[in-house]
């Protein structure tokens, strides 16, 4: 590739300004959706002083590019419909085809927002049914920046099975519900990155203004200060990793013949695949588990190269075919825990009849194993047209090579940084949100918090600050901001525990209680103690859509489960009142109420009895004669069932401030 000198780059830029070339940010492309009933800004770049005309439907607007080549026009509010053509013309002409006008929403957060349809319940059927010509999808490519960028990488796609399967599942199911209920085109922008903390998504100036949170206190103004602080940070980080992560002890299973087709698996157990191995009671571990599958191949496949698809595997794998390694992904690969595994099986290994696939899975922390859908695990000829792939989902044999019972790690230490440098607040906001903030939207859905669970107190300031900053930057007023509360995760102790996972849920609840035009989509009841990425994203999207329809579109519907309002001590009992009764309180699924704990003057909580009386909840315990406080669902993955008659669950709450 020919190298381009800096002087040549400058000349190219000046030439563009001098001779004119209308350009658009990537958020403007064929198949896009423009926000209805709002002033729509169209912007881009051209030659300095160049006249640019934007034509849409029967409207025309003209602008002149400034000295820096930037230009923008504003179209008056648009009515629902399309498809239409949007034309931008200067010394060159750009015609965007198939442009719709409808509702545009941004989905952001970390891995539970980023998680695509391949990992959801009934993924095969959901993907096959994802054929909605009037739903359009835009995924922002992952990037970070020290200062606000003016563009993102991505393009609008029509919602088809091929495009939808890689798109955010939570956002897709949210948009699908709105599309069906509202009957209008829907544009969905997914801007999310797995494993990210909220500090990365906040405008830098908003984060640094929060003097009560560590992100501001830990800020370093000079590289020398960072250098001086690094030894202590590295010490803390290494201690945290030692407590949280297990290390791969080495591959002893292969030496024992566990990948060999002749090795007997009579003493191995079986489990349905694909699914995380913590779903099994005997596999609530971090460590190494082997999986084996026998597959009978037709004679016509013998000697041919095959393609083995295993979907994502968390964390690392070494994969064998007939006792020969054919692939593997380790920790040297970015985001190794989410990478799709696709390996070529050399034809020399392939024989007619019985063949054996063996996969050694190393899980260093939390969820481990096969995390994709049933349609992800297949075997087929590498270039075989007309050959039907073999679906490998079903019972596989498994055996533990080594494991350690899962434990909750201590809070993650915070790294020092140079203000404005890489790793400082706002690096994802700058690259993946700021370039979108001139694009008209209706609102935002947000699924994040796992990476901040260790600093839940600070999250009470961080989340409202982020919402306020985004609203300010977009300039659309208090647009709806809908938050998914952390789902149930980790095993729950046999007694009420005060964990940072439930404290993060509380921070999310407190935010929506004080920030206008926000709502909470509760997900405790659809979580999974063994999977930080629970597969029921259909219900997450539906609950978000209910909130959107009430807050953004003014529908007279119940969109929330019961919200705690007040308490009153009544002898040896406490009576609780709620808002969002939704036709009346109920125990979801029937039976008695569960999930309540009560404490006396000693502030020691014990599990309690509870019943519904006249749309109040009465809580008591024979062990507490003078109660002072109640907590509900106050656990990592609580067993709880308070809801309303619309079927929506109550969030975690407490009446105390202990």
Would you kindly provide a written description of the structure presented here, covering whatever features stand out?
By secondary structure, the protein is α+β, with helices and mostly antiparallel strands. Among the domains are: 222-418, Sandwich (Jelly Rolls), CATH 2.60.120; 563-654, no CATH class. Strands 1, 3, 4, 6, 7, 8, 9, 10, 24, 25 and 26 form an 11-stranded mixed sheet that branches. Strands 12-22-13-18-15-16 form a 6-stranded antiparallel sheet, with no helix packed on it. Strands 14, 17, 19, 20 and 21 form a 5-stranded antiparallel sheet that branches. A hairpin with a 5-residue loop joins strand 30 and strand 31 (605-607). Helix 5 (169-182) packs across helix 12 (537-551) and helix 10 runs parallel beside helix 11 (500-514).
Oligomer: single chain
The helix content is 10-25%
**Measured on Cα atoms, how large is the radius of gyration?**
27 Å
- How is the main sheet built? 11 strands, mixed
Number of strands: 36
Outline the low-pLDDT stretches: 1-19
Structural class by helix and strand composition: alpha+beta
Terminus-to-terminus distance = 64 Å
The helix count comes to 12
Mean pLDDT score: 90
CATH topology of the domain at 222-418: Jelly Rolls
The CATH H-level homologous superfamily of the domain at 222-418: Galactose-binding domain-like
Share in β-strands: 25-35%
CATH class of the domain at 222-418: Mainly Beta
Give the CA-based shape.
Answer: globular
What is the CATH architecture descriptor of the domain at 222-418?
Sandwich
